[in-house]
Each structure stands twice: as structure tokens, then as C-alpha cells.
Amino acid sequence: MPETQTLTKVFARPRSLTDKRFTYCPGCHHGLITRILGSAIDKLGIQEKTVIVAPVGCAVFAYEWFRCDGVQAAHGRAAAVATGIKRARPDLTVVSYQGDGDLAAIGTAETIHAANRGEAITVIFVNNQIYGMTGGQMAPTTLDGQRATSCPEGRDPATMGHPLRVAELIATLAAPLYVTRQSLHDAKHIAQATQAVEKALRYQVEKRGYSLVEIVANCPTGWKMPPQKANEHIAGTVTKVFPLGDLVDRG
Amino acid sequence: MPKGKAVVDAERCKGCGLCVTACPFGVLELSATYNSSGYPVAAMAHPEKCTGCALCAQTCPDVAIEVYREKAASGSAAGGST
Ligand SMILES: Cc1ncc(C[n+]2csc(CCOP(=O)(O)OP(=O)(O)O)c2C)c(N)n1
Ligand code: SF4
Ligand code: SF4
Ligand code: SF4
Ligand SMILES: [Mg+2]
Question: Closest approach of chain A CAs to the CA of B8, in angstroms?
């Protein structure tokens, strides 16, 4: 019997993704997060009603990867842009996709106040502990002692502060519906992160509340680490500083 | 006959190797073939061991893998996989 007649496709490219090839480096978790988001959009059947707000950073073209409407915000302002879209069109599902330099440095004010107002948006926060796009400078999330091009001797907390825990910070507010931190360093965590992204989108569709899904991600290029090594670093070191799990679930 | 098949889109693959580590059955390896971007391409080195579990595809950051699995014969109770 010909093999093709007995095999069915069990994993395909999400329909809500375009055919374009990602511009990310080999092994970069931005691509995986894009796929997870695409799978969640497919599962909820919301492709026609979703708007992706892209950041400044390596994900600057994020709106190119989805067969959805999209816009690219000024650096750090994605949550404010998403707020405007959602208030004008509450029937749409609005996703603010942001890196840690974007969300937690230049965009700190927009981030915190959108969360505090409980804007009914979904924020996907890619915490790769570095400014990937601009050449590996220190981010607010860079680990103590971690080397970056702007702290070549390693982050010194005495003068540079400790890594900023965004999910914990947002979880102190009264309005957010769902705040969680996830990781992608192995298949089990990829599955959990997928469920978290789905839940955050579902809450927006059903309950119209604010969600933040922080995803601990890699930057093999900025970290100067091969992708598998980077996954091991996340499992052994990064998740000790950024513990995983749900912080708020009022859904 | 293998229970599954992982098909790598050679032009999307960036040779990161994450699928090679993710596969629980040692099916995949980075081959000696390079794509037009200059990346070594992942391929099934041991296709007979593939179960179609799709862990490789779920791990691939470039959505370069599609997975096929043997359809459970109608009426068969055990071993059905969907
Ligand atoms: C107003 C403004 N300031 C600074 C920059 C330079 N810049 C581009 S990307 C970036 C940081 C990107 O880091 P992050 O948000 O962590 O994204 P990643 O590339 O790591 O995903 C900066 C500072 C800019 N484009 N615009
Ligand atoms: S620089 Fe880092 S974050 Fe940017 S695409 Fe490359 S690996 Fe990803
Ligand atoms: S489908 Fe499963 S067994 Fe087959 S190559 Fe992928 S990870 Fe390995
Ligand atoms: S995970 Fe994807 S991009 Fe990386 S080697 Fe495997 S098929 Fe290629
Ligand atoms: Mg970053």
C-alpha cells in the first residue's frame, strides 16, 4: 500500500500565518512565539478580527507574519496604540507584541498605565534579557552579572539595578485579568506557553480584560550561545530569576 | 513501516538544531545539504523510527516542519493516533 494513503497531516503551518519567512536569527524564540500566536488565533477562529501591534525591536515586522491587520508602533508605545484600536473597535482582538527593551525600558509608562486601566488587550511580552535588534545592549531584564555590549564587565546591580520583574510588577495592580510568565526551553514548556497564549486571547474575546503573557525567550545571537545551550541556560539560570507560572487569573 | 513522517521545508530551515534535540527518537539530524541561504538543513536520518509525535514541529522556530502520522485503521482499538 502506498505510504501516502495511510498518513494524515497532524502538524501544519497555522492558517493565520503568511508564507513569508521570518527575519529572525537561527533558533530565535521570536519565531516560535509567532507560531504559537498563529496557532492560538486559528484555534479561536479570530483571524479576521485580530490586529497585531508590532514593536520596535527584532519583531518590528511582526505584522508581516500574520494574515491579520497590523500596525507598527513607535518604540515602547504598542500598548498605547493597542488601547486606541481597542477603544475604537471593541469587537476586535488586539495583540500588543513587545520586547523587553520596548516594553520595560522606553515603554514603561505606557505598559503600566494600560495595565492599570485594565485595557482589554493582550500583551505578549518577549523577555530575552537583552536588546537584540541593536546589537546586544543591556535591557532592564538583563541578569545580574550578565555581559552585554553596554555592560561588557557584566551587569553591576550597584549602579545598574537588578533585573526588572515585569509580570510581578503588573500583578500588583487591581485591574489585570490574567498575568503569567511562561518559557519555551523544552516541549513541555512550549505546550504550557501555548495554552497561556490561548487563554489570554480567549479572555479578551469573552471577557474583555487585560492580559500579560511574559515569555522568557532566548537571543542566541546577543547571548553568543548556540540555541540548545541557550535553552539550557534558560532552564538552569534564567527561570531562577524569572519564576514561571500564573501570577493573576481572575478569568 | 514508520508510524510518522516529518517533512522539513529546506528553504525555511535555518539549521538551528532545536528539532534534532527535541525529537525523542533520534530521527532527525542536520544533513550535509545546505539551502540557498547557506544553512545546513535538518532531515530524517532514521525515518523508520518516526512516530509522528510532532514534537520537532512544535519546537521549530521557523515553522519549517510538517508532520504526518499513520491513520488508525477503522475499527482498530489500540494504537490509534490523532
Ligand atoms: C525612539 C527610539 N529609541 C531607540 C531606538 C533604537 N532601538 C531599536 S530596537 C531597540 C531595543 C530593542 O530591544 P527589545 O525591545 O528588547 O527587542 P528585541 O530585539 O530584543 O526583541 C532600540 C533601543 C529606536 N528605534 N527608537
Ligand atoms: S538578535 Fe536575538 S532576538 Fe533578534 S532575531 Fe537574532 S536571536 Fe532573535
Ligand atoms: S514527529 Fe516526533 S518522532 Fe518524528 S521526527 Fe518529529 S519529533 Fe521525531
Ligand atoms: S528546528 Fe526548524 S529551523 Fe531549526 S534545524 Fe530544525 S527544521 Fe531547521
Ligand atoms: Mg529584548
Answer: 11
- Could you tell me the domains of chain A? 15-249 (3.40.50.970)
Contacts made by residues A79-83, CB under 8 angstroms, sequence distance 24+: A79/A103, A79/A107, A79/A110, A79/A111, A79/A114, A79/A115, A79/A119, A79/A121, A79/A123, A80/A110, A80/A114, A81/A53, A82/A51, A82/A53, A82/A114, A82/A119, A82/A121, A82/A123, A83/A114, A83/A117, A83/A119, A83/A121
Q: Which residue has the cell 527575519?
A: A23
User: Complex ipTM, two decimals?
Assistant: 0.94
Domains and CATH numbers, chain B: 4-69 (3.30.70.20)
The partner residue sitting opposite B68, judged by closest CB among A8, A29, A191, is A8
Q: Do residue A226 and residue B39 have CB atoms under 8 angstroms apart? A: no
Q: Assess whether pLDDT exceeds 70 at residue A22.
A: yes
CA distance B55 to chain A (A): 7
Nearest CA to ligand 2 atom 5: A24
For residue B79, pLDDT beyond 70: no
Residues 45-74 of B with CB under 8 A from A: 52, 54-55, 57-63, 65-71
CA dihedral A206, A211, A217, A221 (to 10 degrees): 100
